[in-house]
Design goal:
There is one protein chain. This protein has 170 residues and is mostly helical. The chain folds into two domains: 3-122, Ferredoxin Thioredoxin Reductase, CATH 3.90.460; 123-170, Rubrerythrin, domain 2. It is built from six helices and five strands. The protein has a three-stranded antiparallel beta sheet, with no helix packed on it. A hairpin with a 5-residue loop joins strand 3 (137-140) and strand 4 (146-148). Helix 1 (3-26) crosses helix 2 (34-51).
């Protein structure tokens, strides 16, 4: 094995361990298939080398960070995908039920708007002074954490409160 590939494998192992610890600390779970997960991490590192940011390895990045903010790992679609399908789009993250073998991760449809839809500004309509926000804002009633997404996270990444402890803020 060349020194370059040894260095890459060490980077992958170190990032895997960081992702694992961060996921556990925030109440998330990495895919238990370590080899598969490390291949995804390899893709994240390749995208970071290529674009300067860790775009999801399972989606086509534009190479323009402002256009790809929604697919920088962890992507904006992770939590809704975990809620609805038991895994995120690339399956780096899985739900507790999938981790325990109580549920099988399902095929996940793409939530990301097409480039044409993004260019045309076809985001969900909102009313009021925050009408340009594409998602509702949720507030954790325990710690005050705010997030903008379709549904509240489960659990809160700060205090680990369940999603029923969130209220629609805006």
């Amino acid at each position: 094995m060349s020194s370059e590939s040894t260095t890459l494998e060490k980077q992958i192992d170190a990032l895997y361990e960081k992702f694992r610890k961060d996921a556990e600390h925030a109440g998330y779970h990495l895919n238990p298939d370590t080899a598969f997960t490390k291949d995804l991490i390899r893709g994240l590192l390749e995208n970071e080398r290529r674009y300067g940011y860790r775009a999801c390895p399972c989606r086509l990045a534009s190479g323009v960070q402002d256009e790809d903010l929604d697919i920088i790992c962890p992507c904006d679609y992770r939590d809704p995908d975990l809620d609805d399908y038991g895994a995120c789009y690339c399956a780096l993250y899985v739900s507790g039920a999938v981790l325990k073998g109580e549920k099988t991760a399902a095929s996940i449809p793409e939530r990301r708007p097409t480039p044409e839809e993004r260019a045309a500004g076809k985001l969900k309509e909102r009313t009021g002074r925050f009408s340009k926000l594409p998602y509702p804002v949720w507030r954790c009633k325990v710690c005050g954490y705010l997030c903008a997404r379709e549904k509240p996270p489960d659990p809160c990444p700060i205090c680990k409160a369940k999603k029923d402890r969130f209220e629609k803020f805006i």
